[in-house]
Every structure is written in structure tokens, then in C-alpha cells.
Design a protein that fits this description.
By secondary structure, the protein is α/β, with parallel strands linked by helices. It has a single domain, classed as HUPs (Rossmann fold, 3-Layer(aba) Sandwich). It has a five-stranded parallel beta sheet, with helices on both faces. The longest helix is centred in the middle third of the chain and has 16 residues.
């Protein structure tokens, strides 16, 4: 995607998509601010560790935004004591099971909230881009990973800001397998990825996010990375 200036705020969770998104825009930007959000999620400790290492690797500014109130109102299994759904690789082809998994981990209006906070930073810093690691594969069950979401947010930003700020999603038309391939081409530090829904020492291989990452690595023949992450 062509960017007409060199300043961006990137939403950084420490997972595959946000890491590859940073590597993508790093080629086009001189100034990048990465924002990581603490909304009481089970994985925050590892997400913070991964995000910090990624920010240091790319020599970019990094801030953590605490959203304690979101933790209090969220009924997501990411926030509560309820167990996060465990899937098998074959379940990824079952739309009913993936929709059920998505409902279980859904946090109210999360991505829209993150984007609007990033927009506040953009207007204050005179930055013009917000970067979201949305992708085609998860867009099938998460409506805030779709082009419709990006378009709707951009329409909203035109009416809520005094400066021009655009949300971009460089991976929006890619599957996880394609994202891994692109990450290999970009030379990303795969060892820093934490895509898991919990803060285990390694990615758990049981939650949907882990299974999608592992399948994508397998389909790229990168069993060396699998051994490192799982």
C-alpha cells in the first residue's frame, strides 16, 4: 500500500499479524509509534514481553495503554476465569466451531476502541496512518478484521478528527499462510511471536490463534520455527 507520508501508529499485540504489519510499514516510515493495550487479558504478560522485544528490534517507540475498565465489563474468556476454547487443526475448516470460538473470545468493540485511541495519538502527533493487523482468514469470523470495518472506521475518522488520519490494514487480503510467507520475505524475528490467548512460556498449540499460526508455519515448511515457538 502506498503511503504519502512517513508517520504511523501501529497496534502491536506481539502476534504474527501485528509483527508482519510493522515490518511492512517500517519499509515506508521513518516515524512509528507502537501501542500495546492492557485490558486485563490472560495473555498480557507475554504480549507485553513480545511487543517490547519487537519494538526494540525495529527501533521504534512503544507505549502501553491500560484499559482497566474494559476488563471489568468484558465477559470474554480472554478476561474471565472461564476456559478458552481448545480446537483441533481440522476444526479450522468448520465454520460453526470457529464462530463459536470467536464468540467466546470476543471483547466488546475492542478493535474499534484501539483504533480510536490510536487516532487521538495521530492527531496530537500529526501522524496520518493507523496500522491494524487485520487479515482475510480471521475476517471470516471476526467482523472487525474485514475491509468493511476498515472502511467504516475511515468514514468515522473523517468526521471525528480535524486532521487527515487513515486506518490501513496491509494484510487484509492475506491468509495466515500468506502472512507467514511474507514475514519470511521481510526477515521478521519469528522468535518473538506470542499469538497465544494465554501467557504460557510457549504458544499453547490448543487455542484457535495458536492453531492458525502453527498450520500456517506447517504450510510454509517452517518446522524449525514451530519447534522454537511451540
Amino acid at each position: 500500500m502506498k503511503m504519502t507520508n512517513k508517520n504511523a501508529v501501529v497496534l502491536l499485540s506481539g502476534g504474527l499479524d501485528s509483527l508482519v504489519s510493522i515490518a511492512d510499514v517500517k519499509k515506508k516510515c521513518d516515524n512509528i509509534l507502537a501501542l500495546t493495550f492492557d485490558y486485563g487479558q490472560k495473555a498480557f504478560e507475554k504480549e507485553y514481553d513480545s511487543s517490547s522485544k519487537i519494538a526494540k528490534f525495529y527501533n521504534i517507540k512503544h507505549e502501553v495503554i491500560k484499559l482497566d475498565w474494559l476488563n471489568k465489563i468484558s465477559g470474554s474468556t480472554l478476561n474471565t476465569k472461564e476456559e478458552i476454547p481448545k480446537l483441533e487443526k481440522t476444526d479450522l475448516n468448520d465454520i460453526d466451531k470457529t464462530k463459536q470460538s470467536a464468540r467466546s473470545v470476543w471483547v466488546p468493540n475492542r478493535n474499534a476502541l484501539f483504533v480510536n485511541i490510536a487516532a487521538c495519538y495521530c492527531e496530537s502527533l500529526s501522524y496520518n496512518y493507523i496500522v491494524l493487523g487485520a487479515n482475510k482468514e480471521e475476517g471470516a469470523t471476526f467482523k472487525d478484521n474485514t475491509q468493511n470495518f476498515v472502511d467504516a472506521i475511515n468514514l468515522s475518522l473523517k468526521n471525528s478528527l480535524n486532521t487527515k488520519v487513515e486506518l490501513i490494514a496491509p494484510l487484509i487480503n492475506m491468509t495466515k499462510t500468506e502472512i507467514v510467507k511474507y514475514g519470511i520475505e521481510l526477515g521478521i524475528p519469528f522468535e518473538y511471536i506470542h499469538s497465544c490467548y494465554i501467557s504460557s512460556d510457549k504458544n499453547c498449540s490448543k487455542c484457535e490463534s495458536c492453531i492458525r499460526l502453527r498450520r500456517a508455519l506447517e504450510q510454509n515448511g517452517r518446522h524449525d520455527i514451530i519447534k522454537m515457538l511451540f
